[in-house]
Kinesin light chain
Amino acid sequence: MANLASTYSNQGRWVEAEKLFVQVMETRKTKLGADHPNTLSSMANLASTLWNQGRWEEAEVLQAKALELCSKKLGQRHPDTLIGMNNLAFIWKDMGRHEDALGLLQTCFDLRQQVLGVDHPYTVSTLSTLEAWRKENEQSVV
């Protein structure tokens, strides 16, 4: 089910993806527990699907909850936690919370640098995004 939901998501079939991601998340909550890594992954996938539909407030609530649980369960420096942090920063940026997004992405970058190393693709990508967002912010202030 999760793979099919991901396929729908990759195809931009958001309504179908959302429906399946909800089922997967609820089933995993019941069978594995609310803080199981697979359940948290399902929550993040659903949040991403909501984000892709422009439903930023709903995505924010779900992603923030997934991030909180992931941080408690796996630790703030775990790669899955860092992915959640990155995703929440993108949601905040789309919501117009530019300073919050920049701050969270900076934290994510700092941790990725420590955990994954400076040459890891996620670290490099985060730095690139951080620099682009800073540049956008500077241009909007002028």
